[in-house]
Design goal:
The chain has 200 residues and is an all-alpha fold. 77% of the residues lie in helices and 0% in strands.
């Protein structure tokens, strides 16, 4: 059995154990997360059936499942199932999707033989800009309607500034580990700021 498969099985077993403990302690409202999880899983399986398992789409959909950790953690912390948890899920998914597209761009940049022109940089970064731009506008509308904290679109704008820097400063020849560390730090900062915005 491959190490990756063993790791996946182990992580799944641990997650199931922890969920069981939470349910045993009375957090049964977490079962509601099974509805969006099932829908996202069905979407993933459909993509696989369509032989798109190697495409970006499967990772974007998978990010939605991982983002379910946000409402779960929030609901456990406040000991209640509130609408805020669903907003956190949506925001986490929006950022994760934008970040995945950005990382794909950075991995493409590292394989370049020479530094691209400014026009080529912007052209290659169009999809990243589309994702983060949409997220900024959408969160601005949510903030205007007072569904999410007023600082939310500004936090997404900071992420957008990071992406723009990456678009205009191609990482030609950079090792993937460095790209991963850079994005991990950026994601950590984003989620810390987002969490702080909900606590203010």
């Amino acid at each position: 059995m491959r190490p990756a498969l063993l790791a996946l099985i182990g992580a799944g077993a641990l997650a199931a154990l922890l969920l069981g403990i939470l349910l045993w302690r009375g957090y049964t409202f977490l079962l509601w997360l099974g509805i969006p999880a099932a829908l996202v899983m069905a979407w993933q399986l459909w993509l696989v059936v369509q032989r798109e398992e190697r495409q970006l789409g499967i990772e974007l959909v998978g990010a939605g499942m991982l983002a379910l950790a946000a409402p779960a953690a929030y609901w456990v912390s406040v000991d209640a199932m509130t609408p805020t948890g669903w907003w956190l899920w949506l925001l986490a998914w929006l950022y994760a999707a934008s970040a995945i597209v950005y990382v794909y761009l950075r991995l493409k940049q590292r394989r370049l033989k020479e530094m691209p022109s400014r026009a080529e940089q912007w052209r290659d970064g169009r999809r990243t800009l589309l994702y983060i731009g949409t997220a900024i506008l959408f969160t601005a509308a949510l903030a205007f309607g007072q569904w999410v904290p007023a600082l939310t679109p500004f936090i997404f704008a900071l992420a957008g500034a990071h992406f723009v820097y990456g678009i205009t400063h191609p990482c030609v020849g950079v090792k993937p580990v460095r790209i991963g560390l850079e994005q991990s730090f950026a994601a950590l900062l984003f989620y810390v700021l987002l969490g702080a915005a909900f606590l203010i």
